[in-house]
Amino acid sequence: MVGFENLRLFEVVDERETTYVIEINYDGMRWV
């Protein structure tokens, strides 16, 4: 569940790079 919190932080830092972060986080969550 840390990935989700990190996603919110990244959204505020870079809304454009968030798209990549979301895809990467989703992949990690599926593995977990």
Walk me through the structure.
This protein has 32 residues and is mainly α. The protein has one domain (2-31). 81% of the residues lie in helices and 0% in strands. It has helices at 2-13, 18-31. Helix 1 runs antiparallel to helix 2 (18-31). The chain starts with a helix and ends with a helix. The mean pLDDT is 57.
Key words describing this protein structure:
mainly alpha, 32 residues, single chain, 2 helices
Question: Short description, anyone?
Answer:
Helices cover 81% and strands 0% of the residues. The chain has 32 residues and is mainly α. The longest helix has 14 residues, at 18-31.
Protein structure class: mainly alpha
Q: Largest sheet, described in full? A: none
Helix fraction, binned, reads: over 70%
Q: Count the beta strands.
A: 0
Shape: flat
- Uncertain spans: none
Q: How far is the first residue's CA from the last residue's CA?
A: 10 Å
- What is the residue-mean pLDDT, rounded to a whole number? 57
Portion in beta strands: under 5%
Radius of gyration: 9 Å
- N-to-C SSE series? HH
Please count the helical segments. 2
